[in-house]
Amino acid sequence: MRISRLLKRFFEKDDRKYSERPSHVGFDQERFWVKHCEKVEESFLWKELIGVAIRIFKNEPRTPDVFWILGVEKKLLTYPDKATGEIEMLKRLQKLPGFNNNAIISAMSCIENETFICWESKDFTLRVNGLTNQNFDELANCNISL
């Protein structure tokens, strides 16, 4: 099965209306942005992007199972799966040179808490691996923005 069909099936499982989603992600030719709940939108230029990862949480009842992580030099932007704009963002991220679609497949079949690097430059892996489950739990409750 082609990855695009596999991903489409995964992402279409959500039957909530977009207006009910607390997180939004988007982009244009020059920048990308993430907004959670009623917080201020955070945006960065594409040329500032140093990494993309997926963090999987299993058996964490108050936290979504899947978080996307977009890393820039001094910040990690995160958003849960099923955020408004997620599918469009994924299609854009897949255009990054060397983007690893196999990491997405591995993440979606993962049954443990784990982080999967989809694309990186610089020291992104070290920074992502330093995140704790509490960081994501607080984000899921819209208390912080990483």
Quick summary:
By secondary structure, the protein is of the alpha+beta class. Helices cover 27% and strands 29% of the residues.
Written overview of the protein:
It is a single chain. Helices cover 27% and strands 29% of the residues. It is α+β, with helices and mostly antiparallel strands. The chain has one domain (3-140). The strands form 2 sheets. Strands 6-5-4-7 form a 4-stranded antiparallel beta sheet, with helices on both faces. A hairpin with a 3-residue loop joins strand 1 and strand 2 (31-36). It starts with a helix and ends in a 6-residue tail after the last helix. Residues 3-20 and 141-146 have low confidence and may be disordered.
Mind sketching the topology for me?
Blueprint: H1 3-11, E1 23-27, E2 31-36, E3 42-45, E4 49-56, E5 66-72, E6 75-80, H2 86-93, H3 101-108, E7 114-120, H4 124-129, H5 133-140
Antiparallel strand pairs: 1-2, 2-3, 4-5, 4-7, 5-6
Question: What is the 3D form?
Answer: globular
Low-confidence stretches: 3-20, 141-146
- In whole angstroms, the N-to-C terminal distance is 35 Å
Structural class: alpha+beta
Q: How confident overall, as mean pLDDT?
A: 76
Gyration radius, in Å:
14 Å
List the domain count as a whole number: 1
Q: How many helix segments?
A: 5
Helix content: 25-40%
Strand content: 25-35%
Q: Main beta sheet: strand number and arrangement?
A: 4 strands, antiparallel
In order across it, which strands form the biggest sheet?
6-5-4-7
* Order of H and E elements: HEEEEEEHHEHH
Tally of strands: 7
